[in-house]
Amino acid sequence: MVDISWGGLALAALFAAFTGFNDAGALVGMGLRIPAFRPVTGLVLLAAAVAAAPVVLGTAVAATLGQRLVAFDGADAGAAVTAGVGGAILVTAALSARGLPTSLTLALIGGIAGAGVGAQTSVNWRVIGLVLLVAAVSPVAGALTALAVTKMVGALPAPEGAGRRLRRLHVGALIATCLAYGANDGQKMLAVWAAVQSGNPAAQAVSPLALATVTGCFLVGGMIGLPRLAAALAGRLTSGRPDAVVVTELSGAGVVLGTAALGAPVSMTQSLSGAMVGTGLSGGARRVRWRGVARLGRAWLLTLPAAFAVSAVGCLTLEVIR
Q1: Coil, strand or helix: which one is 4?
Q2: How far apart are the C-alpha atoms of 186 and 177, rounded to whole Å?
Q3: Whether pLDDT at 112 is above 90
């Protein structure tokens, strides 16, 4: 029989549902300007990638989040993980309430580190520093990639049936985005599941219970959050032209898949936001809504230290209560 922590299962399920609420609407809603698929279809594809990517593409990112940042062990591990995950959810929810689709991945990294400090356990600051460096570079890489792709596409002659080709490209770009999300950003749910069950992410990736729970809760959260967050990114950073949306999706997916191969947790939201800015810059700096970029950047800068502080205090509080 499998030893299951039901309290941990509830926490992991809540985190997966909140991840779907926070992430899915922004990812799927970005392509609503192109009538190639229904939003629910996009959500189902994204959830399928969350379930399939750890099995097909590995669990390097989940291992980094769950094992390499902080060594949670001992009798107090459950309280520390609860504080870290809870802090990440609280901070992300507070920012989302202000209309900012900030990075739940950044919040989780900050929450895990803060809980490690609060629990007075070993925190691998070197790995955390490298992860944050990659996270800082990913929006820039997304912008440069999108800028280059936009210029290359613009140099090609316009074919007949361009609208039909654009819809087909959008379907391919959506699939690439879903795979990239499942291979990297989506693995934070698997990392939390493994942590609360005191297991290994690679073993949990082939667990039917783990995959079914994480995927199902993610899908439910995404359905709840889609109407509220659908166009949160596209309408605030650039004009959101249909061809720019396709370039943004392809560029962001390429960056996130590359970082997944390195085992570095990177937010899909950050990479896509950078790619949006890159597509806007291809038509001149005035096409970028810099006020929205600055507002989103401030949210990113606030996310990690806020989650760190909330989780550290929460962990210390749980220790006192216990």
Answers
A1: coil
A2: 11
A3: yes
